[in-house]
From TrEMBL:
Belongs to the glycosyltransferase 2 family. WaaE/KdtX subfamily. This is Lipopolysaccharide biosynthesis protein. It comes from Notoacmeibacter marinus. Pfam families: Glycos_transf_2. Residues 10-122 form the Glycosyltransferase 2-like domain. Residues 266-289 are annotated as: Disordered. InterPro entries: Glyco_trans_2-like, Nucleotide-diphossugar_trans. It comes from the Bacteria. CDD domains: Beta4Glucosyltransferase (cd02511).
Length: 289
């Protein structure tokens, strides 16, 4: 099973119905001393898949637990880890070889460095994995044990909040393999934009016309030019436009939710010619002569 040195590292994964993706994720974690998997009710064969890897002596600890939300589930998984360093990885992600080779140096960081931000490269239909120079923004995924925790108020885009210095890793990345066709990807963006809109409104962030107008364009420009999706041809353009659609839906839903909060939609105006106007209860009825 192991073709690399085992490191003092726990990988933790939350999952549900990930039988089509989880295997390659597990197989990329051969340098980890421990793999903690928290499953929230899989019925597609995911549990059997995990058991098959346990039978192959992969150092997996499987925990079955109900779904409390993304941040709470990841915090629980993090707390189950026993190694000095912990790696947050999703079921549809894998470590590329450069990241595996960089791990020993990352784990040997000075004591004041509590975590590392790692780049992520998505798989684009019609292209494949984006090149190393066209990765998503780096996010904190590698943290020292008990030196960070999740913000439980976040419904989506949950992340670890560190209590010390975090550095970006200049080598290696997570490979994100979930090649959804656009009609399915839009459904996913619709779900996440709803979660984000609700989360922002709960925190008092009211709708803003400027954000509605400019956030989608800013999102597109960041993905297409700064991230480097322009290097990936038409698939890169589609990916950037999908991100802009997510940004637009988030801001638009805040406007709609505010309008619905103020009252349900009601037809009014002279266009409603077929409906008799309600009588004014304060107006007295006079007999017609």
């Amino acid at each position: 099973m192991r073709d690399v040195a085992v490191l003092p590292l726990s990988a933790f994964i939350i999952c549900k119905d990930e039988a089509g993706y989880l295997g390659d994720c597990i197989e990329s974690l051969t340098s980890c001393a421990e793999i903690v998997i928290v499953d929230s009710g899989s019925i597609d064969g995911t549990l059997d898949l995990i058991e098959s890897y346990i039978a192959q002596d992969f150092p997996i600890r499987l925990i079955e637990r109900g779904w409390p939300g993304y941040a709470a589930q990841k915090q629980f998984a993090l707390e189950q880890c026993t190694q000095p360093w912990c790696l947050n990885i999703d079921a549809d992600e894998r470590l590329d070889r450069a990241f595996v080779e960089a791990l020993p140096a990352l784990l040997d960081a000075p004591d004041h460095v509590v975590g590392w931000k790692i780049a992520r490269r998505p798989f684009l239909i019609g292209y494949g994995y984006t090149p190393e120079r066209a990765h998503e923004r780096r996010n904190l995924r590698l943290i020292r044990k008990e030196r960070g925790a999740y913000d439980l108020s976040l419904k989506v885009h949950e992340g670890i909040v560190p209590d010390g210095e975090v550095r970006p890793s200049k080598r290696g990345s997570l490979l994100h393999f979930r090649p959804l066709p656009l009609d399915e990807q839009i459904l996913k963006e619709n779900k996440y934009s709803s979660l984000k809109a609700d989360m922002q409104m709960e925190k008092g962030r009211e709708p803003c016309l400027i954000k509605l107008l400019f956030s989608p364009a800013t999102y597109f420009l960041r993905l297409y030019f700064r991230t480097g999706l322009w290097r990936c041809g038409v698939p890169g353009l589609i990916q950037a436009m999908t991100g802009a659609a997510y940004s637009f839906m988030t801001e638009a839903k805040k406007f709609e939710r505010t309008a619905l909060r103020n009252g349900p939609p009601v037809e009014t105006g002279s266009e409603i010619w077929w409906r008799s106007p309600q009588a004014d209860p304060n107006e007295t009825t006079k007999d017609k002569v």
